[in-house]
Design a protein that fits this description.
This protein has 263 residues and is of the alpha/beta class. It is built from seven helices and seven strands; from the N terminus they run E-H-E-H-E-H-E-H-E-H-E-H-H-E. A seven-stranded parallel beta sheet has the order 3-2-1-4-5-6-7, sandwiched between helices.
Length: 263
């Protein structure tokens, strides 16, 4: 049974690999034996994370960093070329990056049509573009595994009262994007299944990241398990399950990891 969760010799591309979730995902994949490609637009953070993992891990995994904008076809093609040159194959793609423009995060009445479209294009469109290109390799391999990071707000309405008294809100673009990612996951699972490519989604609840105390308190009150926000470690088990052979007969699913918040 333990071997089912082993990722040894698997090549995993993790977009947004140097971010809050990506950092934890990258470290966990290496710990369980995978060779990883950390993908991010922040070269400094990406290279620092690569060196940190190499220093801390006892495995002989190969860890590389590649700067890539997932809305740029040239960047994606270069990423794929470098990955194949190094590893010969791509076993898994974790779509985790969170691209957004400078106006992202405004309240509904302040969001312009142009900003709405740009953010949907960057995030949902970026997931589509990199998945389309990587899936070409997986189709040739006749195997592959794609995991999309969605959100509870992709299937659940926001509780706006928890944001009162803060400068935070739940952006309308986010709801549209994450809902789109969940259904894109189902579409891709159905379309790519004949090539032995699995596609699933993870929908995290709110992850603690130094949000205002009043928000954390109100959010946590609505969580069933332990009355707290999620931390990055809470998501690792689901990621490893979906990446490993333990889930080899699972595709097209969206797994909510929210402590019961969305019930």
């Amino acid at each position: 049974m333990i071997k089912m969760f082993n990722l040894k010799n698997k090549t995993v591309i993790i977009t947004g690999g140097a971010g809050l979730l990506g950092n934890a995902f990258s470290k966990a994949c290496v710990e369980y034996g995978a060779n990883i490609v950390i993908v991010d637009i922040d070269e400094k953070k990406g290279n620092e994370l690569r060196e940190q993992i190499k220093k801390e891990t006892k495995n002989n995994n190969i860890i590389i960093f590649q700067k890539c904008d997932i809305t740029n076809i040239g960047d994606i093609q270069k990423l794929i070329e470098i990955t194949l040159t190094k590893f010969k194959r791509i076993d898994a793609l974790v779509n985790n990056v969170y691209p957004r423009n400078k106006n992202y995060g405004r309240r509904f009445e302040d969001v312009t049509y142009e900003d709405f479209c740009e953010n949907v294009n960057m995030h949902l469109g970026g997931y589509f573009l990199i998945t389309k290109e990587v899936s070409k390799i997986m189709i040739k391999q006749k195997s592959g595994n794609i995991i999309n990071v969605a959100s509870i707000y992709g299937f659940s309405a926001p509780r706006f009262e928890i944001y009162k008294g803060t400068d935070m809100t739940m952006p309308v673009e986010y709801a549209a994007i994450k809902g789109g990612i969940i259904n894109l996951t189902r579409y891709l699972a159905s379309y790519l299944g004949k090539y032995n490519i699995r596609v699933n989604a993870i929908s995290p609840g709110g992850v603690f990241n130094d949000q205002p105390e009043s928000f954390v308190k109100k959010y946590s009150e609505k969580v069933i398990l332990e009355k707290r926000m999620a931390n990055t470690e809470d998501l690792i088990g689901t990621l490893l399950f979906l990446l490993s052979d333990a889930s080899k007969y699972i595709t097209g699913q969206n797994i909510a990891v929210d402590g019961g918040w969305s019930l």
